[in-house]
Amino acid sequence: MEKTILGQNFRFGYYDVPPAERMDAIRHARFDAVMFWWGGEYEETDGSRYALFDLAQKNGLLCRTVHYPSTHADWLWHDDLNGASYEEQFRRALADCGERGIRNLVVHTTRKFITPPPNEIGAARFRRLADAAEQAGVTVALENTRFLEYNRYLLARVKSDAVGFCFDCGHAHCYTPIEDPLGEFGSRLATTHIHDNDGGSDEHHPMGEGTVNYADVFARLCALGARELNLESYCNETSLCYRNSVPMDEYLQKTHDRLARTAIKHGFELASQV
To answer: Phi, psi (5° rounding) for residue 235?
Structure first.
């Protein structure tokens, strides 16, 4: 049985610290893996995604999950040059992941409130991308965001083992509290995003700073056999760690230990010693 790994999103804050030092701190906090944004939007503070992947490898960190840019997620549904550009860039990202052995490429199906009606144009485009994902050996993991009908639409029309689900517990808590994305899509679970909020907005706070019911979340994830628990929390201006000027190393160690303790408490067998 494959044991569960603990991952940390590379964009966790402390952007004034050089990328190499941030990566080293993630390793020293005993995370098994690191997640990246697989696009160019944050290169000014983080460097290129390719350099970060190589840096993770050098530090002995796994990279099983990356996030496709959500900046133009709505283009999936457009029958125009933007839609064609989106598909081509997505294909390149799948090829990148396949070449590097990255298992999961997480994607949003809409961009915030920019929500063209789900349509056959998007479904046909996604079928082609699913075929490309199969060839690359990559799972395209649809993330739960504000509007689950888009996930339902694609999953009903694209039958491929290369299409999975990324469960984001923070999004479920603040965007769809009366729906159950984990119950609905959990059989396709590929990876996770773990972070906290107060139920009112998508704050991406560390575990324990909000009102997410982690006892329920982790018990259900364990029952589903989740093999990746990835923190997607930030030390940002709205979080206690930022206001309390918590040093980076301390922040990472505390968030790692909280994640590990919660996982063990709810039945997970972890890949690394805690």
So the answer is: -95, 90
Kindly state the percentage of the chain with pLDDT values over 70.
99
pLDDT class for 112, splitting at 50, 70, 90? confident
Residue 115 has pLDDT above 90, yes or no: no
Tens of pLDDT, residue by residue over 185-205, are 999 999 999 999 999 999 999
Structural contact between residues 144 and 155, judged by C-beta atoms closer than 8 angstroms: no
Phi, psi of 160, rounded to the nearest 5 degrees: -155, 140
How far is residue 17 from each of residues 140, 246, 268, measured CA to CA in Å? 31, 14, 33
Beta strand ranges found along 10-123 (DSSP E): 33-37, 65-67, 104-107
| Cα 140 from Cα 92, distance rounded (Å) | 13
Burial of 218: CB neighbours in 10 Å, binned 0-12, 13-18, 19+: buried
Domain extent listing, the chain: 5-234+254-265
Predicted pLDDT of residue 80: 96
pLDDT, mean of residues 98-104: 98
What is the fold, at CATH topology level, of the domain defined by 5-234+254-265? Answer: TIM Barrel (3.20.20)
